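Exam revision sheet. Question 4 asks you to relate a sequence to its structure. Input first:
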Amino acid sequence: MTNEKFKALVEQHERLVFTICYQLVQDYHEAQNLAQETFVSAFTHIDSVSEQNLRAWLARIATNKAKDYLKSAYNKRVTLSEDMSELDLLRSESSPERLYISEEGEGNIRQMILNLKEPYHKVSVLFFLEERSLDEISELLNRPKKTVQTQLYRARQMLQKILKEEGVQV
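Answer key, structure tokens:
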């Protein structure tokens, strides 16, 4: 198959492949990655399928890529646990963030939290500054608990990055 024909094939089926991946993994960026992997895999084996079965074949590859991702050790390692033990650590007295707050003053951290962009700003203010529970935040913002957990996890990563850029060891 020529590059032009394959490009046309990708353009024709990219929405289908992305939708299948997204429906399974529920993560926009991972779905994009998996869609790309699907087309790379399809390109290497395109000669083994007839044209009338192409759509179903691509759908099967996309499904398998997404299922493999969901089973992978990487996904299990980065998926947040139900109890949010990492975020609970943040509230403990011995966490690096707490030590920084006590040493440098609450004002710097407070300002960093207030400067976060949405969707991280509201959940961070409620969790870190007002010390509300995940259930309370979920109810107040009318967001699923898992969404709140993910946003808090990412907000914490952003705050750690800012602290590291300022030379604070976390």
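Marking note for examiners. The chain has two domains: 3-78, 85-165.
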